[in-house]
Each structure stands twice: as C-alpha cells, then as structure tokens.
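Exercise 7.
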Amino acid sequence: QVQLVESGGGLVQPGGSLRLSCVASGFTFSSYTMSWYRQAPGKEREWVAGISSFSVTTTYADSVKGRFTISRDNAKNTVYLQMNSLKPEDTAVYYCNAHNTRGYIYWGQGTQVTVSS
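Solution. The predicted structure, written as tokens, is:
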C-alpha cells in the first residue's frame, strides 16, 4: 500500500522556520521525483519545489526561491522541505507528491502551516 505521510507543520511567527518531512512507503522511493505543493484557503493547489530521484536537480517556485530548500534521503525514504524566513502568505496546507516517468502519481494528506503573529 502506497503511503506518503507528511509531518512538521504548525504555527510559526513571521520570519520563523519550519522543517517539513514526508515519509514514503509502498513504492520504490529512489525512482521517483519528489515535490512539495501547497494550497491556501480559497486558492488552487500550487507547486512549491521539486527534487529529482538522486538529488541531481532541485527546482523552486519564484515565491519561495532563496527561502525554502528541498532535500531527500533515499535511505530513509524521506523528503524534506526546510522553510526559512516564513511569511504570512506561506500559510497553506503543504502536500508531498511523488511521480515517475511512467505516469504514477501519489499524494500525501497534507500538513498545515500557519504563519501568523
């Protein structure tokens, strides 16, 4: 059974930091590109960052570039999102995503991040 389980969300003040984790199971993690998406209230889900299967390539949305860092540990089947200098507009539910070249796509259930004073 495929599972993606996110953790690490919470309430943080503007300028603060959080580290999200996503633990995968039920598929060959190292063969999948991993991404983080987010969805704010009343808005569509948007892509935040992605990392290739062996960490060769990382990409970021312009809105988070320079503040967020995506990484992965294939030995632990885990992908991370380090979020620094958080802003109120970063408030959203953050989702972990896995996809491969064969068209398989998996989603986690999300973790809430709230940036507020």
